Amino acid sequence: MILDVNGVRAGYGGTDVLHGVSFRVGEGEAVGILGANGAGKTTLMRVVSGQLSPREGTVSLGGRALRRASPSRMVRSGVVLVAEGHEVVGTLTVLENLRLGAFRFWPGKDPAGDELLEEVFDLFPILADRRHQLASLLSGGQQQMLAIGRALMARPQLLLLDEPSLGLAPIVVEEIYERLDRLRREKGLAMVLVEQSSGRATDFCDRVYVVRLGEVVAESAAAGAPLSEESLKAAYFGG
Ligand code: ATP
Question: Residues of 37-48 as b/e, b for ≥16 C-beta within 10 angstroms?
């Protein structure tokens, strides 16, 4: 197992949002975390990426439980989050944004950094074409590609993607999923995909978990064994 989240309770102030959530991600697996608005998916990604400490439960990487995880420690350990809302720094160029993601390997200073940059440009050629443009001038889909590209510059072992489809046209979503599929096939990169709607993510992922009101209420049994329509509906809407 790359990631093992076990019995995580977490929240903000005096309120718990997650009430004992457990899920796992194996080598090279794409795992979906599905659930309606407000279910706690983003909070779960904050815990896994080290931004929010669990009040109870553990997050283990490669079989070792992490004490006092921090975002920089998680990135060093190979876990990188692409946050919701394709956040890029609009006042910096595409290339500068990509350099921000270079955690250990610096393009221009380190051959491994140059190689990573070439890999990102190969995956998203539009970013190479626009490398000297301000990120604010990119379309929403291109900004999402930039956010993913920036995460790849840290050479992750596990990529966390919080609602990569949010606000994007279906054709752009298709394109992004196609590139994610390439990353999975060619690099064996493990991923956690958080999505609100089940269709695209369930098709893509090896396994999915459904979160409702801070608890995992359904999970697919194994790779290639998707949840039934009924159990998905019950998990989303209760009953
Ligand atoms: P969405 O699909 O809208 O992103 P989500 O499943 O990701 O939803 P979260 O964003 O994790 O859900 O939110 C779960 C609950 O935690 C909500 O009730 C939300 O209001 C609350 N919450 C989220 N962030 C904070 C915060 N920083 N401070 C206080 N409460 C928060």
Answer: eebbbbbbbbbb
What's the complex ipTM? 0.94
pTM above 0.90, yes or no: yes
Q: How confident is the model at residue 171 (pLDDT cuts 50, 70, 90)?
A: very high
Q: Which domain holds residue 54?
A: 3-83+155-237
Q: Is residue 99 part of a domain?
A: no
Query: Does the Cβ of 42 fall within 6 Å of ligand 1?
Result: yes
Cβ neighbours for 140, distance < 8 A, ≥ 6 positions apart:
86, 167, 168, 172
Answer whether residue 127 is part of any domain. no
Q: Count how many domains the chain has.
A: 1
- Nearest C-alpha to atom 2 of ligand 1 is from which residue? 37
Domain containing residue 193: CATH number:
3.40.50.300
Cα(192) to ligand 1 centroid in Å equals 18
Nearest protein CA to atom 10 of ligand 1, as residue = 42
